[in-house]
Amino acid sequence: MKIVAAKKILKANDQLAEENRAKLNAAGVFCINVVGSPGAGKTTLLEALFDGLDGRLRPAVIEGDIAGSIDAERIEKLGVPVVQINTQGACHLDAVTIAAAADGLDYAEIDVLVIENIGNLVCTAGFDLGEHLRMVVLSVPEGDDKAAKYPAIFQGSDVLIITKTDLLPHTNFDADRITADMKRLAPRAEVFQVAAMRGDGVPSLADWLVGKCKTR
Ligand SMILES: Nc1nc2c(ncn2[C@@H]2O[C@H](COP(=O)(O)OP(=O)(O)O)[C@@H](O)[C@H]2O)c(=O)[nH]1
Ligand SMILES: [Mg+2]
Hints:
Layout: H1 2-27, E1 30-36, H2 42-53, E2 59-65, H3 70-76, E3 82-86, H4 95-102, E4 112-116, E5 133-139, H5 146-149, H6 151-155, E6 159-163, H7 175-185, E7 190-194, H8 202-215
């Protein structure tokens, strides 16, 4: 019985995710669901990426956190519209929550909506939010075995960002290993290497995002 209930919840989520996507499509807004562990560097990546866009796109952010508004405050400082969601314990965002959060945004003023999901490599894998693309962020200190150990989240992602590459000289992280695992799990996914804090790799990522938004 519990399995049936879980399937119903996922089906309802998928239906609402399609509605979210339809609204985004109607408004011409490209949407990215950013997933990764707590502390992987997701918010830092967004800060660097928005800077790298150099006004070419109008971003907005939905910030998912268990509690608090630390990340939303960081995004707000950039002058980017942001809505903070507090899940109060839930380990992932879902399509219902995104539909509610989107009410706080004016799609007419947005080209790209970035959803920073709850930091988690497991729960976030099962929930479509209505995005066009899922981006998984993995930082060098987390280790190069994470795609092999948490395949679902990598399998369902369209792009992998290996971040904190400034730390490569201090670890045994093998970028070729994680890239090979990603190619096996998600053959069409693109892979970028970024050191968001010092800016390495950010211009290519920003150009890629502009291209994605223009050609969709
Ligand atoms: N060395 C290094 N540290 C980083 C980089 N990006 C983020 N960090 C640090 O990693 C920690 C977590 O970053 P944050 O962006 O808040 O991660 P989030 O929880 O995934 O959003 C912070 O202390 C950041 O300063 C990077 O490119 N290099
Ligand atoms: Mg964050």
